[in-house]
Amino acid sequence: MTKEEYWYWFCTIPGFGAAKLQTILAWCGSPKEAFRLSPELLEKFPKVRAKDVTAWRKSISEIDLICRQYHQLEKQNIQFITKEQAGYPGRLLQMYDAPMGLFYRGSLPLDDVPSVAIIGARGCTSYGRETARVLGKQLAQAGIQVISGMALGIDGAGQRGAIEGGGQTFGVLGSGVDICYPKENFALYCQIPEHGGLISEYPPGQKGLAQLFPVRNRIIAGLSDCIIVVEARKKSGTLITVDQALDQGKDIFAVPGRIEDPLSVGCNELIRNGAGILTGVEEILDFFHINAPKEMTGNKKSLKPLANEEKIIYSCLSFQEKQIEEILGETGLTVSQAMIALLQLELKNYIYQPQKNYYARCKDG
Amino acid sequence: MFGCVNSGAILGIDGYPVQVEADVCNGLPSFDMVGFLASEVREARERVRTALKNSGYELLPARTTINLSPADLRKEGNYFDLPIAIAVLVALGMIPADAVEGIFFIGELSLDGSLRPVNGMISLISMAKKEGWHTCVVPSVNGKEGAVIEGISVYGMESLSEVVALLTGKQSFQPVEPERDYAAAQYHGELDFADINGQESVKRATVIAAAGMHNILYVGPPGSGKTMIARRIPTILPALTKEESIEISKVYSICGLLPPEEGLVRMRPFRNPHHTISPTALTGGGAVPRPGEISLANRGVLFLDELPEFQKSTLEILRQPLEDRQVVISRVHGTYVYPTNIVLCAAMNPCKCGYYPDRSLCQCSVAEVHRYLRRISQPLLDRIDICTEVPRLPYREFMGEKSNVTSRALRYQVEQAIGIQKERYRKEEILFNSQLSGGKIKTYCPLGAEEEDLLREVFETMELSARAYHKILKVARTIADLEGAERIQMEHLSEAIGYRSLDKKYWGR
Questions:
Q1: From CA B105, how far away is CA B68, in angstroms rounded?
Q2: Which of B391, B479, B509 lies at the smallest CB-CB distance from A323?
């Protein structure tokens, strides 16, 4: 067996997380030595239970199959990199429980390029989604790598924005990289490897289990220099990532919200506890001492080319979506006047419909 | 000693003629009935014999045979008591045989000889007219209903002895007066669109749906007024023509649902079955097929409140009747066709809790929202032309007296638009814009260059389907008709685009 095969085996034993493997590796020196570890000795390691020993023995008995799986990675277009190899993200090496190996499609984040995580609620508001998308886009335009979890809601929106901005984005998955979870994000799943990469510490074929997601969140935190929380409820999975990021000494930025919005309670609480307030991408650019790129300056929308009714409607809209009924009430226009103006504004990209017949201003050009 | 009279029965919603023959001859005394009879028809034997006796006619101890022809169609229902009794009396020579020629008899007898009403009178009398018969003798309760059909005299009789007196000329009777002028009834209930504050866009969508008879879907949180608006649709629907009224009344007559003292249904029906309804109750059927809710709503509105709560199989069954505008029920004994020319009106919440996309109230996960929406299949959604969101109103909006537009004013708009459509489609078989299909859309919904451009741009940016494209055109046509415009213009098209149906892909991305 080659060294790589040993590493592959070492990283794919079910039930052995990064922390346990770390202790074993420190004792044995290399996966090859670990392979010859006697079960009696294995049992003596802290936190190793009888169940783990069985899994360990089973994996050793199936070593042929595991080696074959390793050689299939290439066919699946999946790459495998271990902690020891060059090219392993330097940011992760500073973690005490850095993943032993990473599976990825596409590429890995570069160490000398700033990277930012955009995270938040899955069930977010359309305001949150649009905010995340525009932040992702602007960060990408400024050449910053966007890290996230490819989840529904904020995560996916931020990554979509980054692709739109022509930048690099990396999705850290809680399943194998050959599995698209959630399936609603399939289009994004297909795009990311071409604009960055999909990363996972789990072997291909691993299904997305609930207990794996909090674990992968530490990688999201680990890969980024700072974290942006766009929307989070009071008790949110997002806050787990934030805690892990704080443990790793990363900076947190939170998008403030109205005090009564349940989806801003988490963010506001972070701010009260000392997180940075994020009111625009400029804060992040300042954080990295980057100057705003040209695309981002001076793209204020001009209202000049708009017809009168379009102006009335545009000024009545905000980033928070409004139902057509509300627009009619505020502007006093008839349904058909409003509809024609709304459609024109939408086609000119001034506004968009987060839901059918709900309208909000676009945050960008 | 032979007697023969004309009668009839119902198959589906149409009548068919039945000859009732009686023969009385010497032999062992008996009273036999043949002709593929259901048990309720067979039981007529006892009723007829007793009714004859109690009306003062003595039956001789003789061999009596009754035949209902054609013998290959199963006879069901309570239509044949009177014709059997008359045929026996003709056979006994108590009524001259030529007195019953060209007369159509129908009715159930009670034991004392009085006549009881039967269902389906309008279909039966129109069949009688088609057969070329000149007179109908029916139970007096059914008289008014029967007189709706013009060109045939209808006598409403109280009892068997009255019928005999009529036929033998002992007493003279007047046929039931047909109504001179058909007057479509106006809605005169308590409901009115003026009761609804705000919701202008929803009201507008409702008017468009009524003006073009488009299927409409209301989506909104609980308590936003979806049901309130839907219940007011009958107040703005166009008046019925006599032909439509008769078509509706036929179905109601078969089900025995005609309003008492009224021969006709004069208002467009509005049916709102509860969501626990079974598939059969919706489409019609049963061992003895009866029209279902969808046929009772014929030429009117079928309102399905809480659409996703209906059984999936119940909803899917709607697909074919909505397309074909009729439902065909096949049984061993025959095929029954009921009309289903309806406007489907449905209301639903956007998610299980009802508040999506308001994330401060709705905590449904994205998967839950999707699961809720998936209960309504795409093929069914495709049959809905107009989809409108009903938002929750703030307190100040829905409280207080406001001068809202009344149903009367809205109805006027609807009738104008219907008038334009009637004129436009006078050479076609259709009546309303919603019935346009395929090539006819091109003929009747031409677009100018500017409109064409708009639609192309929208089509590309919003990723619409071909079906959605056609629906937009049809709805735009109705909007143009409401404005009295000859051609579809930009504003009509823009508005129609706003009513396009739910695009699921935008939900909870």
A1: 13
A2: B391
